[in-house]
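Serine protease, subtilisin family: structure, please.
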Amino acid sequence: MSRLRRLLVPAALVSVVAGGLAAPASAAPAVACDTTSTPFSYVVLYQPGSPQFVVDAELRAKCGAKVGYYPEIGVAVASSRNADFAQRIGVNRAYSGGKDVASQAARVSARSAVRELEATQRVAGDGDLSAQQWDMRAIHAPEANKVNQGSRSVTVGVLDSGIDAKHPALAKAVDASSSAGCVTGAPDRTPASWAPTNSDHGTHVAGTIAGKDAARGFTGIAPGVRLASVKVVNDDGYIFPEAAVCGFVWAAQHGFRVTNNSYYIDPGMFYCSREPGDSAAYEAVRRAVVYSTHRGVLNVAAAGNSGFDVTKQTTDPNRPHPVDSSCGILPKAIDGVVTVSSVGYQGTKSSFSNFGAISVTAPGGDFAQLPPTGSGEGCPLSTIFDGGYGTKCGTSMASPHVAGVAALLASRHPFASPRILTGLLEAEADPVACDAAECSGAARDNSYYGHGLVNALDAVR
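Here you go.
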């Protein structure tokens, strides 16, 4: 689904911006604004570099209020109570995921299936956990740890539900100064804004990347690197476009080398670049991802847990609209993002894993691929709430394995660009040949496993 696109500035947008330059900062709405309805947040497109006063004046004139503005990419985050705010701005310039969710409250969402799949199974007891980390052995992480555990100069951003920085395996890794809450679409550096509330998803992801607890025998892939908690998941479990935009820009402006993105942007799952509303969300996220890549960030994303070929999908399971080649699951559809499928204990594709347009694969578990007794559960083990450990299955768990290996590569190659790091990830992966009729391609590049299973040991030697 990845495709190269130029930065788009619609002709209508240029005229709006140009006209806005002459508008007084005190411009008032032409009609009275709604002051009682529920407000919703929107991403709003501008020409990159547009002055802030232009943004403020237009939003005010059209019954909106600025929440945040990213002039580098020409994306504003606005709040409005007016039901017609997007129409006032232009449906190809403004989109609200929250409003879309509220207007389709009765729809059947794939979110419930994802939550069930990635539910935590807590591991009891105080014994050594190393024998249960079959996922780490699969990518040769224990051997890699003996060579290089990663550099403290490398920061990996975990764009997720927040990281429990008090967990004994994560306390030394989490860098509070690089962490932020992005749920509103504007960065908030207060610890409460980036701490988890009701989801341990981000904490589990973080442990896979860089956890280390000698007392329990638990070790992640790159325990020597720093982690930044960038909270983009709200308490209802949604990741809206404005939160993702904030997260990618934050990563770009704070020197992250890698980000992990174990989610798709809601309420998707597919956004279409030629569809009104969708087009604004698609372009806002695209600009943010491309900006971060140009600033040296390698973005890694989970392929998704719907079990289909994303290149052949013609419908969106979350929203009733057709899907074609102009559509993609965000952020993984954006050029330059490393997309990760999942394998289970036996090394074959997880039954739930999406496929097609895959860069590499990594362990994400499978309920049908069970390790031998004493070797753990079918889902990867990692850190969870209250200093504990538990297992989760999903491409969400596969993606941080790749982010951890990418962090090791960035530690070894401090000046490598995201493109070079991607090339190294793919070149050093262990080829996995197709093993099903629906899989297509050679062992070195196929629709199930991409360029193969990532190898942490090759990354450090």
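Notes: The longest strand covers residues 40-45.
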